[in-house]
Design brief:
The structure holds 2 protein chains of 2 kinds. Helices cover 32% and strands 12% of the residues of chain A. By secondary structure, chain A is α/β, with parallel strands linked by helices. In chain A, the strands form 2 sheets. An 8-stranded mixed sheet of chain A has the order 7-6-8-1-9-10-5-11, sandwiched between helices. The two termini of chain B are 39 Å apart. Classes of the chains: A alpha/beta, B mainly alpha.
Chain lengths: 421, 619
């Protein structure tokens, strides 16, 4: 693994200056390219716990849907009536709590995908998440996540180099730990939030000394990571992403997930070289009392949809260079269970959001919900491998070329793509 | 490998096992001394005597406590190693006293299940009985959930307490190694936590320095592993008769084709080969994986919901003949299939090489020396996988005491926190707070979801966020947030807090950084403004939480995250509805660790800088 090593002479004096030459270069770069930059940004959002796809993207045209879910089905659309599915194409509708995203669909910015997911038969959250993040279904112990392999395969665009090195903010997870999807040899940043990415020392003296300790000494992985961290911190401090208030009247909910999206938007605005961002949100494992048009799942969807809608509104025209990709490890049983909930299922739904997509259309072949059409007699069958979506987004939205290295063991030829991007 | 050669090798392996079967059972076999090892261990060591003492404390223990280096020197490095290799001869009364405080972990899995059943089971039972939950039931339900979290809190805390406090340091180091090698995950189902005390205490630790085959077998029979890697659910698929069906069938009768629910699960079979024994490049095929999985069908757990033990079920076992690794297992057999597979893979040369290599990476260097690996493999073969002798070969080698190995390892978060506790003379912490700090740095114990375990190479642990967390951890220690380790009164007998900065730095460099730092580092620690022994230094130590050493902390906010599936909250947000809350509470616990750190000056600052320094990240 190659990691850049910042070794600076006269560390103490540099430290006290507070600004590094690479920062100054970066500032000049940001000025010349303006907001939005030239890089393309992928924002991956993981709904952990297996969101109930059938109540997110509601197949209201299926009689079997209502038969299987007498207590929790979302009613078919009806003009002017509340608490009903929001019609997309006469067959599918969005859950009413997803109303903030309906305009995106209508404007062609959002492409829902039905019956997509992992070909693995596992119904374990943990295995399925692992498979989705490594993009190697049924292969455990894959060393790296696919987003990190994407970074490694892509290299860095020449124009994005700072002092011959990539931005410390190429890939950022708004999570305490590096998520599986970003694990691997390429440097990434994991942070709870922009505010948390700071030294806790309250006196300059201690902060200056600790930085000096990492700026001197041998050129090894420890010093390198430390130097990268201080670079990132300085870049963050000077770019000051927190200065960017939401634009265009965007209103983010006051929830942790929504605030992560707000911070991702700030990083994009601040032009710190962001290429990949990741955030996740839990609460989808609705075994009990999940509700229908209202209730537990509706509340989760409300936050989810409002957060994404605010993000899109905030970025405005910049969405031409930004793609949002949502995922969940699998779907849930077609039939409601004895507790007014659903159990672990198979195929799920994903959303791709961005300007310039073939949105405004539900993608993916619908396999039907009749008994003989179900996977193992109980779950929505799979018609699209999630890797086909990942690969298409990586190639057509991000310009990735070495797809074989990113998706080992998967046929990445465009013949298998849905034509979303 | 050529198929024919492979078959011959496997046959030879089995034959040699059969030949040995009578010899080794009654204890440690007498070993002929190895002339090679004697010659090698007589070679000069590159490290000085002082460095050797510190080196063994950093590699074969979780870092030195005050006075440890001198003690090892006095005893002699080799004598210290020999003693550590015989852990049952080392008294451990101080730790025993701490262990008594982890009352929730005492007893068998069935005891734990009796005391603290998963709330979901109780709820389901009530639903079956048609009971309508009352308000009281809701309160009880929440208490039961909290109890589940407290079990996990104690599971984590007890591992940290042992690493900090045990005199049997090498046993603890190797127990951690094997717990990671045979990784299991606390949130794999609601019953897993009830099996984990047994897994650590009865399965792994007693065999940490034993024969590999014994350890492998104990793990294969353990409910924790059977549940974690789904073998408990694996059964003959409908194309093969089960042993029960075979026995019921009249002699010469036709094949029965039975439709069954469920079928083969390859999970354990694959990981047994890939992660536990041969290694991913160990020369097995997908067909081998399937055959191994078939051999282990019927190895399951009797009533896991009641904390039941291992059981072999003939009604699940695939009784057809199998071929694996070039070896044929005849049909019509039962539990012997799995035992033969364990014999075969434990004796396989690829296993010796794979495990030895991992041990050398753990104990010596991220770039394992081939000559050392081969020498230790020969010890493995000579002793038939006696880990005590394999480890002895590794840690008494010139490679172990080579300059190249000196500080060559990057500490894991566990090692950072435990070594800081030990260096500051902390007692073993019976509260969950130290374990929370480790989780905060990215290594929640029992919290690694995938079967490959935590990484053991430095580059995996180093990233921007990790360094920041470690630096901030150093500041938190400086602010007296690490239980039992007060940097303001540390080594109070020497009145360090009032000593000149240079004296403080000398002492801290000696105790925390092994006395060996660059002139730059020493200058940075020493120079500049440094109020000596002033009020700031004392106030830095003041606002820390009281280390009352009790478990009362388990009900307070830092442990609220232990509720439900907490531990994963610190790795990656876990699935499930209750997990978002767990992650939030974990963040709050971390916030407590780092909250409102005071300006650090004087001795606490020197300690904080030392623990956050690049040098302290190495061992």
């Amino acid at each position: 693994m190659r990691r850049r090593v910042f070794m600076k002479a006269g560390a103490l004096s540099l430290v006290t200056l507070g600004l590094s030459p690479s920062f100054l270069r970066r500032g000049a770069y940001a000025m010349s390219h303006g907001a939005g930059g030239k890089g393309r940004v992928l924002v991956c959002l993981f709904q952990r716990g297996a969101a109930d796809a059938l109540n997110v993207l509601v197949p209201f045209g299926e009689r079997a849907y209502y038969e299987a879910r007498p207590g929790i089905a979302v009613p078919a659309p009806s003009a002017g009536a509340p608490n009903r599915a929001l019609d997309l194409d006469g067959f599918f509708g969005l859950h009413p709590a997803m109303a903030p995203l309906l305009p995106l669909y209508q404007r062609g910015l959002m492409a829902p995908i039905a019956a997509v997911g992992s070909p693995s038969s596992t119904r374990s959250h943990f295995d399925a998440q692992d498979y989705m993040e490594t993009a190697t279904p049924d292969v455990k112990g894959t060393a790296s996540g696919w987003l990190n392999r994407y970074l490694a395969a892509k290299g860095t665009c020449e124009a994005c180099l700072v002092n011959g090195a990539p931005s410390p903010f190429r890939a950022v997870a708004l999570t305490a730990q590096t998520p599986r999807i970003l694990e691997g040899p390429s440097a990434t940043v994991a942070m709870d939030g922009l505010d948390a990415f700071a030294l806790r020392a309250t006196n300059v003296d201690a902060a200056a000394r600790i930085e000096a300790l990492y700026r001197t000494g041998q050129a090894d992985v420890v010093h390198a990571s430390g130097s990268e961290m201080f670079e990132a911190m300085k870049l963050l401090r000077s770019a000051n992403p927190q200065q960017y208030a939401p634009r265009n009247g965007a209103q983010y909910p006051a929830t942790p997930f929504a605030q992560k999206l707000r911070q991702i938007a700030q990083l994009i605005r601040a032009n710190v070289g962001l290429e990949l961002a990741f955030a996740d949100v839990g609460g989808w494992d609705t075994h009990v009392n999940q509700g229908g048009a209202t209730g537990q799942l509706a509340n989760r969807l409300d936050e989810f949809a409002r957060a994404i809608a605010a993000f899109v509104q905030d970025l405005g025209d910049a969405m031409a260079d930004v793609t949002v990709l949502t995922m969940s490890e699998f779907g849930r049983t077609v039939r409601q269970n004895g507790n007014g909930g659903t159990d672990h299922g198979h195929a799920t739904t994903m959303f791709v959001i961005g300007d310039g997509l073939k949105g405004g259309k539900v993608h993916g072949r619908w396999p039907g919900l009749a008994r003989e059409q179900l996977y193992e007699g109980r779950d929505l069958a799979l018609t699209t491998d999630f890797r086909a979506v990942f690969a298409e987004v990586a190639a057509r939205r991000l310009g990735a070329t070495s797809l074989d290295a990113v998706f080992p063991g998967f046929d990445v030829s465009p013949a298998g793509w849905l034509g979303i991007a | 490998m050529h198929v024919g050669a492979h078959r011959a090798l496997a046959a030879a392996l089995l034959a040699s096992l059969a030949a040995c079967a009578g010899g080794g059972g009654a204890g440690v076999p007498t070993l002929a001394p190895s002339p090679e090892l004697e010659a090698v261990s007589a070679l000069p060591r590159e490290l000085t005597e002082d460095q050797q003492a510190l080196h063994v404390l950093n590699r074969l223990a979780f870092g030195p406590r005050p006075g440890d280096v001198a003690a090892v020197r006095a005893m002699g490095v080799d004598a210290w190693i020999d003693r550590q290799l015989q852990p049952t001869t080392i008294g451990d009364t101080a730790l025993d006293a701490v262990s008594d405080r982890f009352a929730l972990l005492a007893g068998s899995p069935a005891d734990l299940m009796d005391r603290s059943p998963p709330p979901a089971f109780v709820r389901r039972q009530m639903q079956r009985d048609g009971d309508v939950p009352s308000a009281d039931d809701s309160v009880r339900y929440r208490e039961m959930q909290r109890a589940q979290g407290q079990m996990v809190a104690q599971l984590q805390a007890s591992r940290v307490a042992r690493a900090v406090g045990t005199e049997r340091q090498l046993e603890a180091v190797l127990t951690e190694f094997w717990l990671n090698h045979f990784n299991v995950f606390v949130a794999k189902g609601p019953t897993m936590r009830h099996y984990l005390p047994q897994y650590e205490r009865d399965v792994i630790r007693p065999r940490a320095l034993g024969r590999f085959r014994d350890l492998l077998g104990a793990v294969a029979h353990s409910p924790a592993m059977l549940l974690y890697l789904d073998n408990a659910q694996s059964m003959a698929d409908s194309t093969h008769p089960t042993l029960l069906e075979l026995r019921a069938r009249p002699a010469g009768g036709g094949r029965m084709m039975v439709r069954r629910r469920g079928g083969l699960n390859e999970n354990y079979g694959r990981e047994l080969l890939e992660l536990h024994t041969l290694g991913v490049d160990g020369g097995y095929t997908q067909q081998d994986v399937i055959s191994v999985a078939r051999a282990f069908t019927g190895w399951t757990v009797d009533q896991p919901a009641r904390g039941g033990p291992f059981v072999f079920r003939p009604g699940m076992h695939d009784a057809d003949p199998k071929e694996l690794l070039g070896q044929r297992l005849p049909g019509g057999r039962g539990i012997e299939d799995g035992e033969d597979v364990l014999d075969l893979v434990a004796a396989h040369p690829a296993t010796a090489r794979f495990i030895v290599r991992k041990l050398v990476i753990r104990l010596v260097s991220d770039q394992p020396d081939d000559a050392l690996v081969e020498r230790a493999v020969r010890t493995w073969q000579r002793t038939r996988g006696d880990m005590r002798e394999v480890v002895r070969t590794i840690v008494k080698s010139p490679e172990f005491f080579a300059r190249a190995a000196w500080r060559a390892k990057v500490k894991s978060p566990f090692e950072v926190v435990v070594s800081a506790s030990r260096a500051l003379g902390a007692r073993a912490d019976s509260t969950p707070r130290t374990a929370v700090a480790i989780a905060q740095l990215g290594q929640p114990l029992w919290g690694h979801q995938a079967p490959n375990g935590w990484p053991d190479q430095g580059r995996e642990w180093m990233n921007t966020g990790a360094i920041l967390n470690r630096i901030n951890f150093g500041f938190a220690v400086g602010a007296n947030r690490l239980p039992g380790a007060n940097p303001g009164t540390w080594n109070a007998g020497r009145d360090l807090a009032r000593a000149p900065r240079a004296t403080q730095v000398d002492h801290v460099v000696q105790e925390l950084l092994g006395g060996d730092v660059s002139p730059d580092t020493r200058a940075i620690l020493t120079s500049g403004s440094h109020p000596l022994g002033d009020a700031a230094a004392r106030s830095a130590a003041a606002p820390a939480p009281a280390d009352d050493g009790s478990m009362t902390g388990a009900a307070t906010p830092p442990n609220a995250m232990m509720a439900d599936r907490m531990p994963l909250a610190a790795t990656r947000p876990a699935p499930g509805a209750g997990v978002g809350a767990g992650a939030g509470a974990m963040a709050r616990a971390g916030a407590l660790l780092f909250r409102q750190l005071p300006a650090l000056t004087g001795l606490p600052q020197v300690v904080a800088l030392a623990i956050g320094s690049p040098e302290f990240q190495r061992r």
